[in-house]
């Protein structure tokens, strides 16, 4: 009994160390965002001055707005293209070149960011001589981000499509529904959680990327990760701590809201199941 209790305390200790390793640096970063000192690692008293200076930093705010715009449109385009690729890989089972198509779709998942960024930069430079092709800037960052994020969306959506009972679609078509109607009325509502997960994953990957964006960005287009990376090389500013605290807080609030709605939907579903059992009984 004592041995079992000792293993239990050892397990709880290992779990606590794991959580401390993951979240203690984030908590310290949030704490030092309220530091009055210009040195980010020396505590000199409580102050909110860096939040005011953060919002007055025009360059940092422009970089944040650039990143949010690129990430939003990247997630939207990657969700559409990734869903189309997933439909091809799961619904069209036999066509010439399917193996090559699947390999090309999933290649960015295992390709180093440096290689992918350099190859995209070479492609964009070579296409720069085409009349009307956009110069290196926000548009080229968007193209590069869509290129590698659609692979993640395709994998997430295809895994959900493989679990989908195809007999539901076949039954709808037997009743006279067209393929478009079947997709909009049957397939799309079922795979909606996977689409949302793929959208959020693409948005996060685009917002977080610094390597690929550094290769394809122009002189007048700087994303937030690029700005933060450049400022950290010259010394950590408490404004970066304040920015990180706001981003962590926004993610935490979004996670709590999502959990609340999921819990309410699950409670409603359980109530409907219980009511159905009572009716059947």
UniProtKB/TrEMBL annotation:
Transmembrane residue ranges: 12-34, 70-89, 101-127, 139-161, 182-204, 242-261
GO cellular component: plasma membrane
Topology of the protein relative to the lipid bilayer: Multi-pass membrane protein
Predominant localisation class: membrane
Signal peptide (UniProt feature, chain positions): none
Family: Belongs to the binding-protein-dependent transport system permease family. CysTW subfamily.
Annotated protein name in UniProt: ABC transporter permease subunit
Lineage: Bacteria, Pseudomonadati, Pseudomonadota, Gammaproteobacteria, Lysobacterales
């Amino acid at each position: 009994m004592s041995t079992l209790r000792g293993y239990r305390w050892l397990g709880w200790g290992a779990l606590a160390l794991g959580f401390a390793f993951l979240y203690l640096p984030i908590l310290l970063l949030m704490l030092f965002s309220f530091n009055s000192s210009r040195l980010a690692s020396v505590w000199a008293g409580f102050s909110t001055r860096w939040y005011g200076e953060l919002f007055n930093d025009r360059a940092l705010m422009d970089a944040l707005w650039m990143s949010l715009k690129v990430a939003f449109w990247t997630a939207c385009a990657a969700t559409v293209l990734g869903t189309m690729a997933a439909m091809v890989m799961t619904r069209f089972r036999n066509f010439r070149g399917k193996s090559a198509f699947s390999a090309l779709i999933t290649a960015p998942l295992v390709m180093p960011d440096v290689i992918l960024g350099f190859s995209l930069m070479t492609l964009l430079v070579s296409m720069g001589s085409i009349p009307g092709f956009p110069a290196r800037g926000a548009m080229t960052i968007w193209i590069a981000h869509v290129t590698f994020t659609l692979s993640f969306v395709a994998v997430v959506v295809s895994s959900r499509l493989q679990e989908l009972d195809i007999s539901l679609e076949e039954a709808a078509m037997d009743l006279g529904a067209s393929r478009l109607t079947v997709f909009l009325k049957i397939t799309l509502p079922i795979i909606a959680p996977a689409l949302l997960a793929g959208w959020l994953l693409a948005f996060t990957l685009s917002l977080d990327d610094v390597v690929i964006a550094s290769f394809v960005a122009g002189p007048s287009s700087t994303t937030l990760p690029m700005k933060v990376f450049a400022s950290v090389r010259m010394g950590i500013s408490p404004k970066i701590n304040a920015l990180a605290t706001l981003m962590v807080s926004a993610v935490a609030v979004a996670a709590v809201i999502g959990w609340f709605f999921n819990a309410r939907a699950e409670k409603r579903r359980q109530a409907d199941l219980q009511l159905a059992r009572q009716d059947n009984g």
